[in-house]
Amino acid sequence: MKLSRRSSLKLIGAASTALIASPYIALADPVAHEVQMLSRDPENPKKRFLFSPQVLQIAPGDSVHFVATDRGHNSVSDPNMMPDGATPWAGQTSHDIEVTLDVEGTYGYYCNPHRGLGMVGLILVGDFSVNYEAAKAAEQPRKPAEVYGELFAMADALRG
């Protein structure tokens, strides 16, 4: 069966519209992001024990590679700061860990040996408002609460 030029163009147009309109078709491949675990900020040596970047905004399905740039650190998800259905993680000290985040929401995490010193971070996945207020209200020890306050102020700016 041979299609006319007009029929071919209609078919191509309909197929294009279906692809664009479908929420189930990924328009971009997942991205691998990197977060460094640091004992000292290279740009501000007075700032110690941090993740860089401290706030990361990603798409669902993207991965985050936590790099043990400096020894003695790890990345552990905070169970009080994760969306429902998300998979928790806990890396070994001084080892890299890679996690893929498929569930939209706000994720808090910390370095287990240095949490008390405020070594915490936030990952904002897709529509991160899903559990944003609950994560923001999660009870924390004094220093992590102080740093999370700064990070949520940064995240508030991203919310618009």
Structural class: alpha/beta
What is the CATH topology descriptor? Immunoglobulin-like
How many domain units?
A: 1
Question: Radius of gyration from the CA trace?
Answer: 20 Å
Work out the strand percent.
Answer: 25-35%
CATH architecture annotation name: Sandwich
Lateral arrangement of strands in the main beta sheet? 2-1-4-6
Morphology: globular
The total count of strands amounts to: 8
Largest sheet composition: 4 strands, mixed
Termini Cα gap: 54 Å
CATH homologous superfamily title: Cupredoxins -  blue copper proteins
What is the percent of helical residues?
25-40%
Uncertain stretches of 5 or more adjacent residues? 7-25
- What's the overall average pLDDT, rounded? 88
Commentary on this structure:
With 160 residues, this protein is α/β, with parallel strands linked by helices. The protein has one domain: Sandwich (Immunoglobulin-like). Helix content is 26%, strand content 26%. The chain is built from 3 helices and 8 strands, in the order αββββββββαα. The protein has helices at residues 5-21, 132-137, 142-159; strands spanning 32-40, 48-52, 55-58, 63-67, 76-77, 97-100, 105-110, 120-125. A 4-stranded mixed beta sheet has the order 2-1-4-6, with no helix packed on it. Strands 3-8-7-5 form a 4-stranded mixed beta sheet, with helices on one face. The termini are far apart.
